[in-house]
Amino acid sequence: MKMTGAKMVVECLKNEGVEVVFGYPGGAIMHVYDEIYKQNSFQHILNRHEQASIHAADGFARSTGKVGTAIVTSGPGFTNAVTGLATAYMDSIPMVVISGQVPNQIIGTDGFQEIDAVGISRPCTKHNYLVQDIKDLPRVIKEAYHIAASGRPGPVHIDIPKDVTVNEGDFEYPKEVYLPTYKPTVKGNKKQIKKALEVIASAKRPLLYIGGGAILSDSCYDIREFAKYTGIPAVETLMARGALGHDNPLMFGMLGMHGEYAANMAAHETDVLVCLGARFDDRVTGRLDVFASNAKVIHVDIDPASIDKLVRPDFPIVGDLKSVLADLLENMKEYEFNDYSDWVNKLSAYQTKEPLRYVESEDIIKPQWVLERTGKILGRNAIVSTDVGQHQMWTAQFYPFSHPRQFITSGGLGTMGFGLPAALGVARGNKDKVSVNITGDGSILMNIQELLTCTEYGLPVINIILNNNYLGMVRQWQTLFYENRLSETDLSVQPDFTKLVESFGGKGYKVHTKEDFDIALKDAVASKKVCMIEVMVDRDENVIPMVPNGHALNEMTLLGDK
Amino acid sequence: MNNFNHYYDSEDTRRVVSIVVMNENSVLSRISGLFSARGYNIDSLTVAPIPESKYSRITIVTTGDRRIIDQIVKQLNKLIPVLRVNEHKDVIEKDTVLIKIPINQNLSDIDVLARAYNGSIQNVTVDCIVVSATDTPKRIANFIKVIQNYKPLEIVRSGVVAMER
User: Fold this and answer.
1) CB of A349 within 8 Å of any CB in chain B?
2) In the annotation, is A162 catalytic?
C-alpha cells in the first residue's frame, strides 16, 4: 500500500499496539502530527516540555512493563529529550523516541533547528537510527520496538528527516525482525546454574542481592518463591524496591549508601552473594575492595558487559533472570539446602538493634513520618514516583512497598525533575491506582509545567513536597563534608505552591501539622485533580544511615552518631 | 570476593581487536565512541569490506589497562550492528608504509633497505622516489627509524591488519 512516511509512522505504532504517545510538535515533525490528528488508535498527550514527554513515557513503561513511546521535533525538541533518554538508558527502560529532523538535503548545512541528533543520542541509547530512505522506515520502527524490549531493555531513538515523512512509499509492516548481529542470550548455562545451586546449598550465610533486573524481567514472584523454599534472606537495591515486599520475613531492606543497618551488615558478612540482576553500583557497594569480602559471588545478568565490570564473580551466569529463575526453581528440589535460620536470626537481631528510625519532634513534622503515614493511608494502592535527593532516599527507606513496579525512581542518572512527568505517565497507565509523586522543594520546580498536562488530561497526580527550604541532599553533604558551608543550597525564596498549583487547575494544601496532612491527603485522593501537598518539614534532618563515600558498608553513620 | 586488584596487572597492555560489523554508515562512530568515552586512544584502525558479504572488518590496535579494554570489548559485542569481536592473541600482523624520499639520496642503499623489509621502490619522479614496505608493525617502525637517514619528505602508514594463525 502506498502512503506517506508520516502515515507509516502512525501505522507502525498502531501495529505495535501503542496506546499512548507523549510528545510535543514542531516544524520537522509536523507531517507526523498531521497524521496523528487524523487517527484514532492511540492517544497523544501533549506535555509542556520535551524532557517531560520522555520521562512520562518512561514512567508509563516502568509502571506497566510496556514499551513507552514519545515523539519530539528536531533541534531543541530533541536536545530537550536527551536527559530523558539518558535517564531511561541508565535504568534500562524500554522506550522508543521518534524525533523529526531537517530534510535530507538540508542535513549538514546548519539548517534551522538542525542538530546531529543521532550523534548526540548514540552514547545514551541502546541503539539509534537516522532513517534516510522511506523504504527503511517500517523495518526500522519494527526493529526499534524489538530492540527496546528484548535483552537488556533500553531506549531506542529514531531520527526521521522531514522529507522522509512527506514522501510516499510502499508500506508493509514486517512480521518479523531480521537482525543477524543482535541475539541476546536468554537461557543461562545449565551446568553453571547447577553449580550455583550447589554453592548456595552448602553456604552458611547466603544472601540474595536483588537489583532492578528483577523488576524489568518480571521475575520478582519467582525470586519470592526461591527465597521462601530455600529460606535465604534477601536485600534489595534502590531499583528493586518492592521486589520481595516490605512484609516478607526474609527481606532485610535496601542496602547501600543509605541502606538499612541489617542489609548492609548482611552484605558485609555473607559468604555466598547471589546477585540477581544488579550491577554492583558504587552507591550500593561502598568501598568495593572490601564489599562482601568473604563471599563467593554468583552473578546473574542478561548483559555480559555487566559481569566482570566491577566485580569478578566466581559463578557468572549470563541469561534472562526470568529464565534462570525458572531453571533454579526447577532444579532446587534436588539439593539439600543448609538450615539458614541462625543467619536469618542474626540479621533479625541486627534489625532489632538498629531499625530504620528517626527522632520524632513535637514542634515540626519529620519527613520520614510523611512517608510512613502516606504508606499507611495509601499502602499498596499507590504507585510512588520520586524526584532525586533526600526525599527519594526517605521514600526508598520508609514507604512500605509491597509489589514490583510500585516504586518509580531515577536511580542510575539521578535526574531531578523526573518525578512529576513520570507520575503523569504512571497515572495514564494505571488508572486503578493512585499516582503519587514524592518530591522536594528543589526537584519539583524542574518540571513544574507538567501540572498543566495533568489538568488537561485528567491525570490526578498527587505531589507531596517535603519542603525543607533546602536543596537537602547537597546541604547534607555540605554539613558533613564541607564544614557546613551551605553554598547555593538555601532555597528560602519560594513560590506559593498552593497558588501555583491552583493556577494550573489543581488543588493545593500547605501542611504544618500531622492532622492537616491526613486531611489533605484524603481530600487530595478524593479530588481526582492534580494536587500539591506541601509539607513543611524539619530543615536539618539528614538521611541516615549513611555510608560516607569511600567507606565500607559496615562503616555506617547511624542515628545518634556524631 | 575477587576484585580487580587481584586479577589485573596494572601495566598497560597492547591489544589487537578485530570486529566484524554490518556495513552501514554509523558503525565506526559507535565503535570509536566506546574508546573516546573512556579517554582511550586508538593506536591504529583499518576498515575494509569483507568480500561478497554485507559485512566489514575493522581492526583496531589499542594500548591500555586490561580491565578497561575488556569492558570496551564487551561493549563492542553489545553494539547492534556488530556481528562478532575477536581479540587476537596469536596473530600475523601486517602494516604497510609508503615513504617519499628526495631523488638526490643514495638510491641503491634505499633499495637494499626496502628489500630487507619486504619492500621495494614503487615510483620515481624527477624530484623524488616512493618506496613501500609491508611487514610486522614492529619491523615497519624499525624501517621508518632507519630511513630517517635519507631525509624522507613524507611517511604514510596503513595501520595494522591481523589474522589468527
Assistant:
1) no
2) yes
pLDDT tens profile A275-320:
999 999 999 999 999 999 999 999 999 999 999 899 999 999 999 9
Helix axes A321-331, A190-201, angle to 10 degrees: 60
Contact criterion met (CB < 8 Å) for B4 and A296? no
Half-sphere exposure for A531 (CA within 13 Å, toward CB): 24
Nearest CA to A287 out of A557, A477, A480, A549 is that of A549
Provide ipTM, 2 decimals: 0.87
Phi and psi at residue A21, in whole multiples of 5°? -120, 135
Q: What is the mean pLDDT of residues B47-61?
A: 94
Rg of chain B in Å (alpha carbons): 19
Q: Is the confidence at residue A491, as pLDDT, over 90?
A: yes
pLDDT of residue A562: 58
**Known active-site residue A528:** no
Catalytic, A8? Answer no
Instruction: Supply the pLDDT for residue A561.
Output: 76
DSSP string, chain B: -B-HHHH--SS-EEEEEEEEEE--TTHHHHHHHHHHTTTPPEEEEEEEEPTTSSEEEEEEEEEE-HHHHHHHHHHHHHSTTEEEEEEESSEEEEEEEEEEEETTS-HHHHHHHHHHTTEEEEEE-SSEEEEEEEE-HHHHHHHHHHHGGG--SEEEEEEEEEEE-
Displacement of CA B23 from its chain's centroid (Å) = 20
- DSSP of A474-487, one letter per residue? HHHHHHHHSTT--T
Which pLDDT score, from 0 to 100, does residue B11 have? 65
Q: Which of B7, B33, B78 sits opposite A312 (nearest CB)?
A: B7
pTM, two decimals, is: 0.95
Chain A residue with minimum CA distance to B33: A123
* pLDDT tens-digit series, residues A16-65: 999 999 999 999 999 999 999 999 999 999 999 999 999 999 999 999 99
Could you give the maximum distance between any two Cα atoms of chain A, in Å?
72
Beta-carbon separation of A308 and B26 below 8 A: no
Sheet holding A272-276, edge to edge: A251-254, A234-236, A206-210, A272-276, A296-301, A315-318
